[in-house]
Specification:
It contains four helices and seven strands. A hairpin with a 4-residue loop joins strand 3 (about 60-70) and strand 4. Helices cover about 25% and strands about 35% of the residues. The strands form two sheets. Strands 1-2-3-4 form a four-stranded antiparallel beta sheet. Strands 5-7-6 form a three-stranded antiparallel beta sheet, with helices on one face. The protein is of the alpha+beta class and about 150 residues long.
Length: about 150
């Protein structure tokens, strides 16, 4: 299998429809908002940093952070890889790139996130990556933390 370059790219007027068209597996729809909703939320949240995930020249996913450099708080708000592109390592590579970005931000010591618990949820992915559960639950989501 040839190497595929995973990159994070700004979403433009030319690419927004392709990013919004990406969907997770039907069994995962209750675990992550659609990219259209995420992009809309980002435009009303000054702390949002968001990018499309590409594998070579193919859009395969979406990532969004909540960035508060004044408080030195960084939150992985969304991470999605389209259903047909899962299981290829793109999620891990996208998270690697996202973590690299967070490490460049002022006072970054940890990346916090949360997930909806359930059989088709992302718990195993995040724990396998190195996130640890905090025991906290916010709005029904389990809070996790990755030391940087």
């Amino acid at each position: 299998m040839r190497n595929v370059e995973v990159t994070l790219r700004e979403i433009t007027a030319e690419t927004v429809r392709a990013i919004c068209a990406l969907e997770v597996h039907p069994t995962q729809r209750d675990y992550v908002a659609s990219n259209a909703v995420s992009i809309a939320q980002a435009h009303f949240a000054p702390q949002a940093w968001f990018r499309a995930v590409y594998a070579d020249e193919v859009p395969v996913g979406f990532v969004m952070l909540s960035v508060d450099p004044d408080a030195e708080e960084y939150y992985l708000w969304r991470l999605m890889i389209a259903g047909e592109h899962q299981g290829k390592g793109f999620g891990r590579q996208a998270l690697d790139l996202t973590v690299e970005h967070v490490r460049t931000l002022p006072g970054a010591r940890e990346l916090v996130s949360s997930f909806v618990p359930g059989d088709a949820g992302p718990r195993g992915f995040y724990l396998g990556y190195g996130f640890e559960e905090t025991g906290e639950v916010e709005h029904g989501e389990h809070v996790i933390r990755l030391a940087l």
